[in-house]
Write a structure and sequence with these properties.
Largest sheet: 8 strands, mixed
CATH class: Alpha Beta
Strand content: 25-35%
Helix content: 10-25%
CATH architecture: 4-Layer Sandwich
Structural class: alpha+beta
Bound molecules: zinc ion
Number of helices: 8
Distance between the termini: 21 Å
Order of helices and strands: EEHHEEEHEHEEEHHEEEEEHHEEE
Number of strands: 17
């Protein structure tokens, strides 16, 4: 891949995208089941050619990680899908063989140099490179890293992987509203449990407190049981890694659209509005996980609505 990769700066932190996949998999009705198709008609003119193919009506999306280098740390935020993962229910993600680690190397980072992996949530396309297949076993890809993620996501994933009804710490907060779906099978077993068993996991409460210098996990639940957006503050500048609060720029213009992957639709909607308000207010640089093009932009408020501008 010869695509030019830009490095962004938030204060002392340098942020580079590490690509895994480019997707042109979904039309409106598939990505936003039950959404009003007029939402697309209203805003199609605002969607750039790199984000939407008008000839086929297909959204163009990305799956990638964010490499964050600070003076102290080498951090990956989310770890994409991973190679060799058995995902028969998700054909575009099934048994990939992508040069993700070569792209990380091209950015100047060997797996051993990553000291923290921060996960917005435990879904197939965000935790996959946590592990890789070595001699038939799933081993941590980043052996010197601490993997930081929500205790609730861990407990929920563990209990579903065991086929148990989530109780105690694993029980979803009733305030999330009803769950429309559950995380995909196998993901916890092949991509999360091995890093816990290797002693590399640090479970946190997603409550906005600092987990590393200038970095905090902001509660934005709904897409998953305890989905977090990750805020990075350095020298007065702010970046927001919004995970799957949105899957495409269309949702900036039409925040009522929930994707087909959102588990708790009522909470997902509230969290999307929270992030749009927060990012418009703060002027944060927003780093998305599934927008195509640069995946990076700013949110502005215009006449009672929000607008997206790629950076
Ligand atoms: Zn995702």
């Amino acid at each position: 891949m010869t695509k030019e990769t830009k490095t962004y700066h938030i204060g002392d932190a340098a942020i580079t995208r590490i690509d895994e996949l480019s997707l042109a998999a979904f039309q409106f009705g598939t990505l936003y089941p039950g959404g009003d198709p007029r939402a697309l008609e209203r805003h199609q003119g605002r969607l750039e050619a790199g984000s939407f193919d008008p000839a086929t009506g297909t959204f163009i999306q990305s799956i990638h990680s964010w490499l964050v280098r600070t003076p102290q740390h080498t951090i990956l935020i989310d770890t994409a899908t991973g190679n060799d993962k058995n995902r028969p229910d998700m054909p575009p993600l099934d048994r990939l063989n992508e040069p993700f680690l070569a792209r990380l190397a091209a950015a100047g980072v060997a797996p051993e140099e990553v000291d923290h992996v921060l996960l917005t949530h435990v879904h197939a396309d965000h935790v996959g490179w946590n592990t890789r297949l070595v001699d038939g076993r799933w081993r941590p890809t980043f052996p010197n890293a601490t993997y930081i993620f929500s205790r609730v996501e861990q407990a929920y994933g563990e209990s579903l992987a065991k086929g148990a009804e989530p109780t105690g710490a694993a029980r979803p907060d009733p305030a999330l509203g009803p769950a429309l779906r559950k995380p995909a099978d196998r993901v916890y077993d092949d991509s999360v449990r091995p890093v816990i068993e290797a002693g590399l996991a640090r479970f946190i409460a997603v409550d906005g407190s600092e987990v590393l210098e200038g970095i905090s996990f902001i509660p934005t639940p709904g897409h998953s049981v305890d989905h977090a957006s990750i805020r990075l503050v350095s020298r007065g500048e702010q970046g927001l890694f919004a995970g799957d609060v949105m899957h495409h720029p269309l949702q900036v213009y039409e925040p009522l659209l929930n994707s087909c992957f959102c588990e708790f639709p009522e909470a997902a909607l509230r969290s999307r509005n929270f992030v749009l308000e927060d990012a418009a207010e703060s002027g944060a640089t927003v780093f998305t996980t599934h927008f195509a093009q640069s995946s990076v932009g700013r949110i502005k408020r215009t006449g009672g609505r929000f607008a997206w501008r790629f950076l």
